[in-house]
Write a structure and sequence with these properties.
By secondary structure, this protein is an alpha/beta fold. It folds into two domains: about 10-165, Rossmann fold, CATH 3.40.50.10940; about 165-480, no CATH class. It contains 16 helices and 18 strands. The strands form three sheets. The chain has a six-stranded antiparallel beta barrel. The protein has a five-stranded parallel β-sheet with strand order 2-1-3-4-5, with helices on both faces. Strands 7-6-8-9 form a four-stranded parallel β-sheet. The radius of gyration is 25 Å and the shape is globular. The model has no long low-confidence stretch (mean pLDDT about 95).
Amino acid sequence: MLGNIPEVKLGIVAVSRDCFPLELSVRRRQAVVKACKDKGIDIYEANTTVENEKDTMKALDEIKEAGVNALVVYLGNFGPEGPETMLAQKFDGPAMFVAAAEETEADLFDGRGDAYCGMLNASYNIGLRKLNPYIPEYPVGTADEVASMIAEFEDIARVILGLSGLKIFSFGPRPQDFLACNAPIKPLYDLGVEIMENSELDLFEAYNKHADDPRIPEVVKEMEEELGEGNRYPGILPRLAQYEITLKDWMEEHIGASKYAIFANKCWPAFQTQFKFVPCYVNSRFAARGIPIACETDIYGALSEYIITCATKMPATLLDINNTVPKDMYENNKDKFEGYRHDDLFMGFHCGNTSSCCMKNPAMNYQRIMHRQLEPDSEPDITRGTLEGTIRPGEITLFRLQSTADTTLRSYVAQGEVIDVDPKSFGSIGVFAVKEMARFYRHVLIAKRFPHHAGVGFKHAGKVLFAAMKMLGVEDVSFNQPASMLYPGENPFK
């Protein structure tokens, strides 16, 4: 069951300029709340309508008592620019500003609210107070339209709240010659994220202390039930269960003042010789619970996975943007690739960390690349523990938040899909299609020095992720630009 993410408690406060009818804001707020409930959106309706600063403080007390952690400031009419922006300033959590559209040509005298105009003044005051609330692309609408905007804000708010309560546990340095997993700490603190860096020895000591833990048989049974016919190496399950319990206990014992936790662990090459297994399957099980465990001590990879999980309320994964699709595979499956060029395609791969619910026919296996190096002339033993299968076809979002070496945060978002084509290879792997991928690969991934790991969400979540990055103050958010839009520095002479 997915957990480890915030529960968003939405609240709406209507505001009213004192020279406009207060009843207009109240009536329009009630209509928005009804539209939210019709869409299955749970939202607390504050009784206080804000006209002045005293109202602001009263409304804040009201929503605090109701447990609201994500605030919608609703301009039912022009609104009082000072008190309404003070609402967001003094509220301890993410806030959204949205305004009412006029309803009918038959009521443009006493029933005209001018919130379209008031939103401009609200924006000016937001800037004066140095606030960064969520403002939709077009923040003016009918009750039904505003309710749809609030639904998007709920996902955005979950990201913001998740990061403010997050701790990252890391074990070990990045593998040798994996400089791309560079992880400056300062930007994490800027985001409100805590980090606890540990040695591989700390993890190994904790693991050994869990030898013969009485909970191991129960976890093994869970694994057997999940794997079913894919349980090809049952002998490795007790080691994996011991490791799973180790991480679970570490999280509970060290989460401290934080509410949520994720991991970034060094998983090779010494891991196999000392722990005697590959941790991928355990990583996949934690991902299914909303607790990403990034491979190769990729701290920002783990963070990216967690952001996706908060945005989608679904397990995410971390994959290499790995290899090209052979030309004959493209030609032999042209009917499935309709609308995509050959260079729009690539394979996303990792050893076996993707949750079983996101794959077709998942099965326990061994890591072929490590086996090649560590035990080439013997049956797989210490390289067992991957969860392999073809990634399920359907919508995907590629996303990563990364710090440069000089502590500048950058991000990218690209939507695409996994195509139902057999990748004919090993690992957690799928054939991915993203429009204009070749240009995105060159002018974003390469040009902006992004590492090889991409966070993958299993639905289209670009709108939410882009907006969340802007709320977090990430100025550089790239996307896969259409052919008509040149990237900076892109050669126009094709």
